[in-house]
Design goal:
The chain is mainly α. The protein contains six helices and no strands. The chain has a domain of 126 residues: Up-down Bundle (Ferritin).
Length: 190
């Protein structure tokens, strides 16, 4: 009987302690640091992909690069809207308003390159970035703690794989032109 009374007393003490840690009625619990980090990184990646795609639309002369850029702009705009629609269920998570220093530096490098140098850099960045994004999304889809965001990560993976395949298949740009590399026609000797 003494054990039963002790167990009842411990249970009575545990209920108020748990109630103190629970969010007030009508409020949701804050998201975990891992969920916040994933949502922030996904939104940052989308922002970068859209801006890099716009640059490729302007700077590339190769149709395959322009087509790929438009696909990434369209798809990453869509995922940006999807993650924004989940924000009410992610208290305390705010999408970034501007690129972080790392992504800004990548975009600045792209902005200063031109011709074949731009295409080589853009292709390399797209392959590397999509490999990193796939790893991040796979990790969260397996181990994430927010069911909605976990499902979104799982549902987004096929698009990221498609982007990676297209980036890897982009044609290799020609060599960058050098000074004096123009050639004369064979029939125009002087």
């Amino acid at each position: 009987m003494r054990k039963l009374v002790l167990a009842a007393a411990l249970l009575a003490l545990a209920v108020p302690a748990r109630a103190q840690n629970a969010p007030p009625a009508g409020q949701r619990a804050a998201v975990s640091p891992a969920t916040r980090q994933f949502a922030d990184r996904a939104a940052m990646t989308d922002m970068f992909e859209i801006e890099a795609g716009k640059l490729a639309q302007q700077k590339s002369n190769i149709p395959a690069y322009k087509d790929f850029a438009q696909m990434t702009i369209d798809d990453h705009t869509k995922t940006t809207e999807q993650i924004k629609s989940m924000l009410p269920k992610l208290p305390g998570v705010q999408p970034p308003q501007q690129l972080d220093a790392q992504h800004r530096a990548l975009l600045d490098k792209l902005n200063t390159a031109s011709g074949g140098a731009f295409e080589r850099l853009y292709k390399a960045d797209q392959i590397k970035g999509h490999r990193e994004a796939i790893a991040m999304f796979e990790h969260y889809s397996r181990r994430g703690d927010n069911p909605d965001l976990k499902k979104w990560a799982t549902d987004t993976l096929p698009t990221l794989h498609k982007h990676l395949q297209h980036a890897e298949a982009l044609p290799r740009p020609g060599p960058a032109p050098t000074v004096g590399s123009g050639s004369r026609s064979r029939g125009t000797r002087r």
